[in-house]
Design goal:
Elements (H helix, E strand, L loop, with lengths): L17 H14 L7 H15 L5 H5 L12 E10 L4 H11 L3 E5 L7 H12 L3 E4 L23 H17 L7 E2 L8 H9 L3 E2 L11 E3 L8 H11 L5 E5 L4 H20 L2 E3 L18 H5 L6
Parallel strand pairs: 1-2, 1-7, 1-8, 2-3, 4-5, 6-7
Bound molecules: zinc ion.
Length: 306
């Protein structure tokens, strides 16, 4: 059906000392009294923008003079989605989304809900009006059974696919969060058989990208390490009514902060286009990937993506 991923897994690929360096940096910020809320956002967001594209942060960014999303939906509605969390920087992302009054769908890997702090973050996602979706237990490729370690799990079949999804839902329900109704397959790796298993369990597919010109799924490619300006350019060029934007909060903190920094310019453009933010994902979010008319070579494209 498919070949194993050729790209290193974003979750498991070595990223030098990034995550550890980030944890140390975040811990230092906490020790210095910046806290997770408010000030940390103001300090970290401009730094992410500087690192991403070399430009200086504006006064508004430094002072936190946010320009939130308008409630004008006359141009249509847009869904922000974030994959692979929760992670150390998710709280900062939630701060920024709150400041901008935008809501989204967080497709979580429950293996990352591994501490009381992470439990609190996922609870906060739900409490602040976001949707918590299912991104599998540990980001194993649902079609091939290739784990993040690179090993192919065996046996791999319907029971294992169901288990990957159901572990997430059980974990979330244990935290008092509603059972997810949306799922997003890791790497966008999907087949009709896998989707049928998921649908029978009550999950609806939301792809991270599409293969058709009118798919209207905009992958920010933030997981590739794009700077915030490039993320903004990619998203703004394509955003319109019913767009689903894909970003990540489960990569290293630098990448997540680039996406965090991109939110305000994206919101500015949405306000210009009279687009508002919603968590209601449109009925067809499959990106055309399961369309039998889509040639196999395009469907194989899925395994190159995060
Ligand atoms: Zn993912």
């Amino acid at each position: 059906m498919s070949t194993p991923p050729t790209k290193p897994d974003p979750l498991s690929s070595p990223q030098s000392s990034g995550p550890w360096r980030s944890r140390i940096a975040l811990a230092m910020a906490m020790v210095l009294g910046f806290g997770v809320f408010g000030v940390a956002t103001v300090r970290l967001v401009p730094r992410a923008m500087d690192e991403g594209n070399g430009r200086q942060a504006t006064v508004a960014e430094l002072t936190g003079a946010w320009r939130p999303i308008n409630n004008d939906c006359s141009g249509g509605k847009v869904v922000f989605t974030f994959d692979d969390g929760p992670d150390e920087s998710t709280a900062l992302l939630l701060d920024q989304m709150k400041a901008l009054n935008v809501h989204g769908v967080f497709f979580v890997n429950s293996v990352n809900i591994n501490s009381p702090e992470r439990e609190a973050i996922v609870r906060r996602e739900a409490a602040e009006g976001h949707i918590v979706g299912n991104h599998t237990y540990d980001h194993t490729d649902l079609v091939t059974g290739v784990a993040t370690s690179g090993l192919t799990l065996s046996p791999w079949g319907p029971e294992q696919v169901a288990n990957e999804l159901e572990q997430v839902s059980a974990r979330l329900e244990g935290l008092g969060i509603s059972r997810p109704r949306l799922y997003r397959p890791p790497y966008g790796s999907i087949s009709p058989g896998v989707d049928e298993i998921a649908r029978k369990l009550g999950y609806r597919l939301v792809m991270s990208w599409g293969v058709l010109a009118d798919s209207n799924l905009v992958d920010s490619l933030d997981y590739r390490g794009l700077g915030s300006r490039d993320i903004v350019d990619r998203v703004v060029a394509a955003v319109g009514p019913d767009t689903i934007i894909t970003m990540h909060d489960g990569q290293n903190i630098e990448r997540t902060m680039n996406s965090v920094a991109a939110l305000q310019p994206i919101v500015d453009q949405m306000n210009e286009k009279r687009l508002c933010s919603t968590t209601d994902v449109r009925p067809d979010a499959t990106g055309g990937v399961l369309d039998p008319d889509v040639p196999p070579e395009l469907r194989g494209h899925s395994l190159d993506e995060g």
